[in-house]
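cron nightly-structures :: item 1 of 1
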Amino acid sequence: MKRIVTIARALKEKNRVAGRLAKARQLVNKENSKEKKVPRGVDVKAVYAEAKMLRDRLVAIKTAIAVANQPIVGRIVELAEVKSEISYLNALDVQEGVFEESSYGGKLVKEYDAVLQKSEVLAEVDELQRRADELQDALDEFNASVKVEIEVD
């Protein structure tokens, strides 16, 4: 049955339907091709038909969410990019100084220099995390207040 729900609730329903779809597809994969003498545990055609129905529901839910999110799509994209930048910076090599490293012929002494200093990178990550938190708060508020119509079990 169709119901009007908040985007937050629609996102939960989307995740639930996506999980059911994944399980149905996994079951079809497992049961579809078997040795002739081995019985199947399920009606593969019925499970595949259910998977197609779940796929259609998932498309409808994602579409409803996307349409409702139009006013804040810029914030959604920015949040994704801010999170990506945080991940990038957290993985950035900021090693500096003299290090002794093992090699085939013994040990080598290498000196490293980082253009972006560890303190700078950590400060940038802190600033980006504050921005990510602001954006997430705005999205959470939007998702809790804006309603969409979706099919719900």
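cron nightly-structures :: done
The beta strands are 2-6, 97-103, 106-112, 147-151.
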